[in-house]
Amino acid sequence: MQKVVEKLIALNKTIATMESCTGGGVTNALTNIPGSSEVFHFGAVTYSNDYKVKMGVPKDVIDTYSVYSMETAIAMSHTILDITGADYGIGVTGKLCKSDPQNPEGRDDLVYINIYVGEHQKDYGMELQMQAVSREEQKNQVIQAIAHKLEELLEDQ
Predict the structure, then answer these.
(1) Cα(23)–Cα(111) distance, rounded to whole angstroms?
(2) For residue 120, what pLDDT is reported?
(3) Spatial separation of the C-alpha atoms in residues 67 and 88, rounded to whole Å
(4) CATH code given to domain 2-155
(5) What is the DSSP string of 108-136?
(6) Number of C-beta neighbours around residue 95 at 10 A
(7) Domain ranges (residues) in the chain
(8) 37-40 contact pairs (CB < 8 A, 24+)
(9) What is the C-alpha separation between 13 and 41, in angstroms, rounded?
């Protein structure tokens, strides 16, 4: 995330996150970098469906597509951008090789990520298939994928 924070500072751009399965890991990775306070607006960990909805994710998106879907990740990234006014919004939802009795829909090994670039009103979605390794390693894989995609997007600026 070092390069991401440096590039955001250089571009005078900001970022905010709404995370579920990563439990704030993306926010942690960003805020571990000196200078991140210049670019990081806000991070929300919305583990439950109720709090995704309370934060502004449309309930009908979750009801129609499930909480574990690209549509929900997109709604999360748009919502956090709307709340904060940041330039980049990140939404992350999915299952880390564990079933969820409250939300049995979808595969137990997929994570959905969306990076929303407000200036261009463009979504960059990714699906990651998780391997049965430790939960910490799975979260790190997701964080690394987000960091790489952000680096790529910021290079194009």
Answers:
(1) 13
(2) 93
(3) 21
(4) 3.90.950.20
(5) TTEEEEEEEETTTTEEEEEEEEPPSS-HH
(6) 22
(7) 2-155
(8) 38/8, 38/9, 39/5, 39/8, 39/9, 39/13, 39/14, 39/15, 40/5, 40/14, 40/15, 40/16
(9) 10
Question: How far is residue 93's CA from residue 44's CA, in Å, rounded to a whole number?
Answer: 12
- Phi, psi angles (nearest 5°) of residue 58: -60, 130
Structure-token pair, residue 155: 């290079």
List the structure tokens of 115. 């990076």
Count CB-CB contacts under 10 A for residue 110.
18
Burial of 96 (0-12, 13-18, 19+ CB in 10 A): buried
Is 0.90 topped by the overall pTM? yes
pLDDT digits (tens, 9 = 90+) for 62-90: 999 999 999 999 999 999 999 999 999 99
What six digits make up the tokens of 124? 């960059």
